Amino acid sequence: MLDTTDAQDRCQTLIARALAAGAAAADAVYIGDSSESVAIRLGHLEDVERSESEHIGLRVFVGGGSASIGSTDLGSEALDELAQRAVAMARAAPEDRYAGLAPEERLLKSAPPALDLTDAEDLSPADLRAAAEVTEAAARAVPGVTNSEGAGASAGRARVALATSHGFAGAYETTSHSLSASVVAGTGAGMQRDYAFRSARHAADLISPEEIGALAGKRAVERLAPGRMTSGQRPVVFDPRVGGSLIGHLLGAISGSAIARRASFLLGREDEQLFDPALVIRDDPLRLRGPRSRPFDGEGLPTAPRALVENGRVTGWLMDSAAARQLGLEPTGHAARGASGAPGVMAGNVTLEGGTVTPAALMSDIADGVYVTELIGQGVNPVTGDYSRGAGGFRIVNGELAGPVAEFTIAGNLIDMFARLSAANDLEIYRGIDVPTLRVDGMMIAGD
């Protein structure tokens, strides 16, 4: 894997060759990563993996056409061939009047901000094995746990470089660490499984292996002997580990490309009050050690914090340059880039803030409802906002959790769900999308 300086140089070299081959403009991206992981099951070493990969991608513009191409071969001859093939493809491509590099005047000109995304400590396979062993032992020690699907520990490193023909060149490096455990409780037909997982840029930011394991075991045991829900309209409370998916649907709906394609349930609703005014949804791609932090976007534009929802209303769309041109707006620094293909859109570290009551207080007036800890399937229509997913969790009776339930469906429409959404005050920030415990009144539950 190239270091960041060499990766940036390789991107600039590839652009120079594309221009020499006849491109009018071009950009190139390098993505390299390496990782090690160790899996333990029932106290024994089950798997040790190491992987390393690197890709370089080139996007060129010739006349009104564009083409993207990628390769894992970074040799000189391969780069020459890559540039020539990309230009030939662009010449044969149909005209796209919205495609092009980001506006030159908006490129990041200063030094990229330091975001502390790299852990100086490299964990050895022995370190990872020890962490996985402790994690699984803690999970299996929980009374009621009868089997294990395994525990794992991993560490990785990635490097990203981007260069454009109109003046941008930058690179950054990240590290990642994770711990996980998945265990089974009960026996026979009554068995239940659950898991716990945590990841961070720095190993020091992880909670301990003992906590991860104990949480996985506790969750599995709590799911034993689930009951069934009866059908009807009830309040639904979402655990933070699944509630973030609701905000994920919002992010897809405010993507400029979805708006440009007229494929968003928020089309034409940009001026409406969608949420309670007390709730604020923020995007912070510059958070120190954040899982989605990055100093510049996939087109070389600076990233910056912003409110996505304020006073109950969306503050605008998330756009790359192509969608911005199509909508007659400006790019927002949210372009995301893979090793091939045109940029898409990605938010940074997203949080929902605004809750003032505890989770217990949020549920205290619910006579009959459900607390959801698991969502199953992908039954969400991004065009209409219709929402229907399988779920599992716990009944709420007279404001208290009253035993596990499984095999039911929750349904509604995201517009209505957003309007009825309220939040507790237990926000923890460590995922890419972080939310507190969320409540949505008036959802349909399909059970027995």
From TrEMBL:
Domain of life: Bacteria
Stretches assigned to the Metalloprotease TldD/E N-terminal domain: 26-90
Pfam family, one: PmbA_TldD_1st
Ranges in coiled-coil conformation: none
InterPro entries, A to Z: Metalloprtase-TldD/E_C, Metalloprtase-TldD/E_cen_dom, Metalloprtase-TldD/E_N, PmbA, TldD/PmbA_N, TldD/PmbA_sf
Annotated Metalloprotease TldD/E central domain residues: 120-224
Domain (Metalloprotease TldD/E C-terminal) ranges: 231-447
SUPFAM superfamilies recorded: Putative modulator of DNA gyrase, PmbA/TldD (SSF111283)
Entry's family note: Belongs to the peptidase U62 family.
Name of the protein this chain belongs to: TldD/PmbA family protein
Organism the protein comes from: Novosphingobium tardum
